[in-house]
Design brief:
This protein has twelve helices and 18 strands. By secondary structure, it is of the alpha/beta class. About 45% of the residues are buried. The structure holds flavin-adenine dinucleotide.
Length: about 425
């Protein structure tokens, strides 16, 4: 990677911001990450990332990319208490009326809380030459040149609550779903990106349970038009399970333990009731998170965008979290940013990155939104051939109740390891469409 400039800034030290900082460190002398929160000493949730209290599944695309970006990540992860389980056998996966058969091949699957992933990535990034992570600093504005064509820096309130300015060759906005870049573009005479919003009216409730160290049970139940409820149970560090129940289109889980247990009893996961009965709680509160819509800013459709600025992660698109894609999409986008930087020029970096990132965002969006349109109440722009694909996937899942090869093919696509086209390989299509005896 050739040197691209002296100073880059990343706003937001969530997963997308930290992973962007990792790739920028190869191209800039200094990379400053500006984060409004202060970081807890423990791997515990923080205010700026409220979703950190809820189950976070790391897909294979994210798992393997973390290892690429931080060689030895697995060792750090396991020694910090994270678990590696087998997604083919340890994870019981319920879809279309039953659990899927076990898969034939080992699929490594990390299991940990979201704060642990973030803490480990933050540690790795903070160790890189030239990277400074500034906590307790809130970005307030981009600095733009007189012709309003180039972002030349960022201003932020610093640790002493005074305004500080930083000159940059590149700013990366990784402030998440509430990113203010669209409003800022409008204020400076640019057209903001068109927005796709797909309404799903989802909510999560989550608690932690104590777990016997050797018990790695994990299960996921997906919602269907006959039951809008879902659940995810994952063994995590500290001998705990994170237990999330969720419901779409207004069937929201309560935040008191009796209501939570009652909600869980209407899920097709008999183990879940047993877990709640047999294991003491490891958290006092039940965390709640409403998630009304999948939200996508189509930056790739813009003709004009300032030089010196890129947007990444949830600030581009945030997907129904039931499909566990956000951290992995952020990781894949960081790799794409690396490739863009490796071209050796910064001009048009924003637009070039947005067009390139559609390779990743389109797939995640199609999978999440496509599944959401199984509910007649879902509204918003519907991707082409959604209904046909849904019918095919629904049949594939039913066949996978007894066919581990189909489970394997499906899980690898869900985990963003393989592209969805692999589900249309003749050998898979044959298994899906052949008549059931
Ligand atoms: C309920 C829920 C469950 C989820 N489950 C999963 C899952 O199972 N698997 C998965 O991969 N993904 C999941 N996600 C998505 C995942 O959390 C995100 O996609 C992923 O973390 C990437 O987010 P991000 O870094 O872009 O933004 P965020 O995580 O929102 O981080 C933004 C950061 O920017 C900081 N910030 C904001 N404004 C400023 C400012 N002005 N100045 C300085 N700092 C600022 C914030 O404090 C924060 O640290 C889930 C999301 C939700 C809501």
């Amino acid at each position: 990677m050739s040197r691209q400039g002296e100073q880059a800034a990343v706003i937001g030290a969530g997963m997308a911001g930290l992973l962007a900082a990792r790739v920028l460190a190869d191209a800039f002398d200094e990379v400053t990450v500006i984060e409004k929160d202060t970081f807890p000493d423990e791997a515990s949730p923080r205010r700026g990332v409220p979703q950190g209290r809820h189950i976070h599944v790391m897909l294979e695309a994210g798992r393997s990319t973390l290892e690429d970006l931080f060689p030895g990540f697995r060792r750090d992860f396991l020694s910090a208490g994270g678990l590696e389980i087998d997604a083919a056998r340890d994870v019981k996966f319920y879809a279309e009326g039953d659990f899927l058969a076990e898969g034939p091949h080992y699929l490594p699957h990390y299991a940990a809380t979201r704060p642990l992933y973030e803490q480990l990535v933050r540690r790795n990034v903070s160790r890189l030459d030239g990277v400074t992570v500034r906590q307790g600093c809130r970005s307030v504005d981009y600095r733009i040149d007189e012709t309003a064509t180039t972002v030349e820096g960022v201003s932020f309130t610093n640790e002493q609550a005074t305004v500080e300015e930083l000159d940059t060759s590149l700013v990366v906005d990784a402030t998440g779903r509430t990113s203010r870049t669209p409003a800022w573009l409008k204020r400076h005479g640019y057209t903001p990106p068109p927005v796709d919003e797909v309404y799903i009216d989802l909510a999560y409730s989550t608690l932690l349970l104590q777990r016997p160290p050797e018990d790695h049970r994990s299960f996921i139940t997906t919602p269907s038009s006959s039951n809008p409820r879902a659940a995810g149970v994952l063994p995590v560090e500290g001998d705990r399970w994170v237990v999330t129940v969720a419901g779409v289109h207004g069937d929201h889980p309560p935040t008191d333990i009796d209501g939570f247990t009652e909600f869980a009893s209407n899920l097709p996961a008999p183990d879940l009731e047993g877990l709640l009965e047999d294991h003491p709680r490891a958290s006092d509160e039940i965390a709640h998170y409403p998630f009304p819509t999948n939200l996508r800013h189509r930056y790739e459709d813009l003709d004009h965008f300032p030089e010196g600025l890129v947007v990444i992660g949830d600030a581009i698109a945030s997907f129904n979290p039931l499909y566990g894609q956000g951290m992995s999409v952020a990781a894949l986008e960081a790799v794409l940013l690396h490739h863009i930087l490796a071209t050796g020029r910064l001009s048009d970096i924003g637009l070039r990155f947005f067009v390139r990132s559609t390779d990743v965002v389109d797939i995640a969006w199609m999978m999440a939104v496509g599944a959401d349109f199984r509910f007649p109440q879902t509204t918003g722009p519907k991707p082409r051939s959604t209904d046909l694909t849904s019918r095919y996937l629904s049949r594939l899942n039913r066949k996978a109740h007894t066919d581990g090869v189909l489970r394997d093919a499906f899980m690898r696509v869900l985990m963003m390891e393989r592209p969805p086209t692999t589900l249309f390989h003749p050998k898979i299509v044959w298994r899906v469409l052949k008549p059931t005896r």
